[in-house]
Amino acid sequence: MDITLRPARPADADEMARWFVDLTDLATWGGPEVRFPLTAEQMAAWIGEGANPTPRLCFTAVDADDRPVGHVEFLHDPAKRWARLGRFAVAPALRGLGFGRALFDRALAYAFGDLDVEHLALAVVPENERARRLYLAAGFRDEGVMPGQWTVAGKPYVMTLMGLIRSDWLRRTMSPADAMKVA
Fold first, then answer.
1. Which of 20, 50, 100, 121 would be a feasible disulfide site paired with 25, CB 3.0-4.6 Å?
2. Taking phi first (over 0 means left), then psi (-120 to 50 degrees means alpha), and beta for anything else, what does residue 153 get?
């Protein structure tokens, strides 16, 4: 499946706002600081964080008509060769069809290739079983728990921290002969 990623634009929020039905749904994706509904102003603020010392890099997956069909962000610390993958979403019409896996694989290739990270981290709400299955299948491992890290609509959320290191990713993506060279 061919995935086209381009830098996110504030106007992408118009389409992406339809992907989330309420504040809890949106916050599960975007964290406690999001406001419902998703707006171009929120998206512009996140995109603007690309100039920070630890930049937020925002990408939108688009269809042939340049319509948003997925989204992924990275907080990147080049000095530490570390990044956190966050705000990963797939348009509801494409969920369960393999697009999420293809987009996630593309995101991992970007992190370990273009960003040249050694460690890629993420945080997930444990109840998001579909996401956890995707992350575990890609080689991520549980690294810890952040209980009550944030609250949305009065409900405290527990986050599971997960991580993947470059050598594990390479072993999963390389031919067996090439993987032996990395081991």
1. 20
2. left
Contact 52, 89 (CB under 8 A): no
Say how many C-beta atoms besides its own lie within 10 A of residue 73's C-beta: 24
Instruction: Give the angle 103-130-9 at the CA atoms, nearest 5°.
Output: 40
Q: What does DSSP assign to residue 36?
A: S
Q: pLDDT tens track of the chain, all 183 residues?
A: 778 999 999 999 999 999 999 998 888 888 888 889 999 999 999 888 888 888 899 999 998 899 999 999 999 999 999 999 999 999 999 999 999 999 999 999 999 999 999 999 999 988 889 999 999 999 999 999 998 777 877 888 889 999 999 999 999 997 766 655 555
**Beta-strand relationship, 82-90 and 141-152:** unpaired
Distance CA 164, CA 120 (A): 5
CA dihedral 176, 177, 178, 183 (to 10 degrees): 80
Tokens of 62: 């688009």
- What pTM was computed for the model? 0.89
The two three-digit tokens of residue 22, written as one number: 């309420």
CB atoms within 10 A of CB 171: 15
Count how many Cα atoms sit within 13 Å of the Cα of residue 50 in the half-sphere of its side chain. 11
Residue 13 has which token pair? 């929020």
